[in-house]
Amino acid sequence: MSNNSQLSVRQATVVCLENRLSELKRVHQPLWVYDFDDASIVWANTEALALWRAQTRQELSERDLSVDMTQVVMMRLRQYQQDFANDDTAEFKEYWTLYPNGEPQPVEVLFSAFRLGDGRMSMFCEAQGFQRLDNDALRSSQALMHTSVMITLYSAKGEPLYRNPAARASVRSSDEHLHEHFTDKTARHRLDNSGEQEVNFVASVHVGSGDRWHDISARRCLDAVSAESAWLISEVDVSQLKATQERANYLAEHDTLTGLPNRNHVSVVLEQRVLQMCARGEQGALIFIDLDHFKDINDSLGHEAGDRLLVEIADRLKHLVGDTDNIARLGGDEFLLLMGPLRDRREVDEMINQLKQHLSEPMMLQGRNVRVTPSIGVSLFPADGKNINELMRHADLAMYHAKGLGRNEAAYFTPDMSEAVDSRINLESELMVALQEDQFSAYFQPRVDVQTGDIHGAEALVRWLHPERGMISPADFIPACEDSGLIGKLGKFVLTQAVIAQRCWAENGHTLKISVNLSPVQFVAETLVEDFIQIVEDNGGDPHSMELEITESVLLGNDQATINKLQALVDYGFHIAIDDFGTGYSNLSYLHRYPISCLKIDRSFIAQIESAQPIIELIISMARLFDLDVVAEGVETAAQLQALKAYDCQEYQGFFYAGAVALGDFTALLDCDGAAAA
After folding, report:
1. GGDEF domain spans which residues (predicted)?
2. Which residue in 624, 677, 660 sits closest to 452, CA to CA?
3. Which of 392, 485, 561, 674 lies most in the core, judged by the most C-beta atoms within 10 Å?
4. How many CB atoms lie within 10 A of CB 408?
């Protein structure tokens, strides 16, 4: 239709409405009719002309109101049009800010359905109040209108009393009941059975386009109109975040090369299955598989061939066992298989025979016929242990015994294989001596600004200089310290050294944040908070420059005692960081519920920085959302650092800059860093 034709239609509409609404001209409050399709006011009384700063009705009707209209306002008007089409008796009253000739005019308006002469649905608008809201109230009403957060007020029975535009756009119908909103009964029951004033959870909900995941915050309140009990519910669509998080959780529990569950899955899922079978009085077996001479394949044919071999072995295990949840790749060429419940040991014998047969079949790698054999160790439960760690240790001992028999062999754990246990006892004895004779020392690894390369902090790490065996890796003695109860003394020693270093560096003009690892075993100590405060006080340190690193396993209990202990440490001045973030059961609720100030991205993601990009960017986005610091661990190459710069990561640590060094060497690094900056 041409512009002239449109103008003629509009003029005809105005004339028709002049006749229909002539009696309303004398009403002393602004009244006007809004044409949804034309985005124009097709009739207005004298008071409305003054409100809209128009000289004549024709001038007002010729204004194209869509020119300066925001998307949210357009969406709200389309919602009204749809609601009026469904029910021409519906009415809506809202505070709006009109902008006649660009001037803001807040007004309370009652909207109702009005059919034009040609049958089209339009909207009759009645301004009912001009009392000036204070600035905060006015802006809050506009924020409610324009926010993307979906906000709905429900009666105690679940009937919708009000929806802002975002909420109205998401639901399937304007009268959708609260209980109809959720896809399952669990979320409904959380509201129905909750005696709390505020409830927060993530739930699957019905929306107009299907089902989505929403982060829901529900607060009890009173309806301002009826003074009756009501629910004020705000919702944020977290479907994409949920999907990415589920993918991150999957990657954290699965080996990226073979697709099999990994060690994290073993320590949580298989542990629960063992405990459940033991509790029911059932028997089972844990089978430890190590490939013989796998290193020779890697050395002769290369790592790519080695990876292809591991994938083939994993596929054979999947085909043989079927249930991949009971198989895991621990790392390298080590695999684990859980069996149970068992009727008798012959089932294990049969599985061992099948494993030796199927895993030993030749395969083609780079045009060569290659064959590897398995060495298999078996521990039975409950006879050889009642938890996954004990069973893994015993199966591992049996596997090494099988290797000693000449490869391609299998062995069941027996008590006479426990020389390793005796060795561990000896180790614990040596650890006690080491603590008494000050054989431990604290080393410090720099935490470096990703963008500038400046040293911003350090992680304190313990080292053991054995008088006979030299420097011993923490991986070899920290588990023994935890098992023996010595971790508490060792942890206090490291914190003491870290506080002394922090004070000395500060006295020399170096303001650094020093982080110290806090073991889950340490964390449960009743006097932890008092002990740590005392260490800082005794050594003249600044708790605001100290950071305690915990793993996600500390937070799994989600109990009030954990919150209280962390809060007490934070109240004194300590910062709290989550170490190895992303490898456990990373959960948004941790960041809501606990006083966390920093996330440390696990080195396993940095090692696979290209394939792990979605996880790394998710962690950084989550940290930014909650105003947390982010540190990437295990950075070893320039390419990894460049990627972290692109991801806008704040800090990193790793061998690319420097490994952990003694106190004097770290001070030298600081002096060099300061000289370079000068």
Report:
1. 282-415
2. 677
3. 392
4. 16
For 3-38, write each residue's pLDDT tens digit.
555 555 556 666 667 767 766 767 788 999 999 998
Convert the pLDDT of each residue in 450-470 to its tens digit.
999 999 999 999 999 999 888
Rounded to whole angstroms, what are the CA distances from 78 to 39, 100, 184, 232? 11, 21, 30, 24
Give every CB contact of residue 408 below 8 A, 6+ residues apart in sequence: 292, 356, 360, 373, 374, 375
Yes or no: say if 466 and 660 are a contact pair by the CB < 8 Å rule. no
The Cα 619–Cα 635 span in angstroms is: 16
Q: What is the mean pLDDT of residues 401-413?
A: 87
Put simply, whether the predicted model's pTM sits higher than 0.90 gets the answer: no
Please give the Cα distance from 125 to 502 (Å, whole number): 68
* d(C-alpha 357, C-alpha 14), whole Å: 90
* Cα of 167 vs its chain's centroid, Å: 25
Domains of the chain (ranges; CATH) run 3-134 (3.30.450.20), 147-237 (3.30.450.20), 249-417 (3.30.70.270), 434-677 (3.20.20.450)
Amino acid identity of residue 331, one-letter, is G
Report d(CA 265, CA 330) in Å as an integer.
10
| Reduced 3-state DSSP string for 65-132 | CCCCCCHHHHHHHHHHHHHHHHCCCCEEEEEEEECHHHCCEEEEEEEEEEECCCCCEEEEEEEEECCC
- For a pLDDT cut of 90, what percent of the chain falls above it? 39
